[in-house]
Design a protein that fits this description.
By secondary structure, the chain is mainly alpha-helical. It has 9 helices and 3 strands; from the N terminus they run αβααββαααααα. Helix content is 74%, strand content 5%. The chain is globular and about 55 Å long.
């Protein structure tokens, strides 16, 4: 496999490994050997090390002294901690869109994403559905205009994608549930209803957390 610009080589390697972790091809606590990745992808060892540092920042791997990198654990404490934090970050983004002056044209990207979510659900395309779910957050970034919030969400997004994928793959979660949530959320955002935004997102994140934990037990 050969990687090319425009993304940096280390970012491309990180993305490749992240996809394998998110899909469960690389298991929790599994060691990622630099030499094997170097040979498999025909890249330098330095680029692989940089990629692993990126994945550590994104909470998909843990780098241990003298033991190298291994896939982070998925346990109850980690899942609950992640869901609690992401719930508040989602609310911040939702409130930013609801509170900002906005035209119909500025809200159009959310409607396009909603259509793509429905299409992915109809195809039962888990990978596309998870990606589109996070496209919602990225569409909200310009309204928030907060680089620190954006950086935090981006670094946590792969770990959250991993939990969503697990729940959907094991049929513990249902895509239609998210579609209902998104419709409710859009209605609250358009109406500028901040308490409703918090209510919808809090309930959804609590339910998602329960479903992910159920998937862990089943796995």
């Amino acid at each position: 496999m050969t990687f090319k610009a425009p993304d940096s080589l280390s970012e491309q390697i990180a993305h490749y490994l992240a996809e394998r972790i998110i899909r469960g091809e690389l298991k929790p606590a599994e060691r990622i050997q630099e030499q094997k990745v170097t040979q498999a992808l025909n890249v330098s060892r330095g680029s692989v090390r940089e990629a692993l540092l990126i994945l550590e920042r994104r909470h998909l791997v843990t780098i241990l002294p003298r033991r190298g990198a291994q896939v982070t654990a998925l346990n109850e404490h980690n899942v609950r901690s992640l869901c609690t934090l992401m719930s508040e970050l989602y609310i911040l983004l939702g409130n930013a869109v609801a509170s900002a002056p906005r035209s119909e044209a500025e809200l159009a990207p959310f409607l396009v994403i909603q259509q793509r979510l429905h299409a992915a659900s109809a195809r039962q395309d888990i990978k596309a559905f998870v990606e589109e779910s996070f496209a919602v957050m990225r569409a909200a970034y310009p309204f928030a205009n907060n680089p620190y919030l954006q950086e935090t969400v981006e670094n946590l997004q792969p770990a959250m994608s991993r939990t969503y994928y697990l729940a959907l793959d094991q049929r513990k979660a249902n895509m239609n549930d998210f579609l209902v949530l998104f419709a409710q959320l859009l209605e609250a955002v358009v109406g500028g209803d901040l308490p409703r935004i918090r209510e919808v997102l809090t309930q959804y994140c609590e339910r998602s957390c329960t479903l992910v934990l159920s998937s862990l037990v089943a796995g």
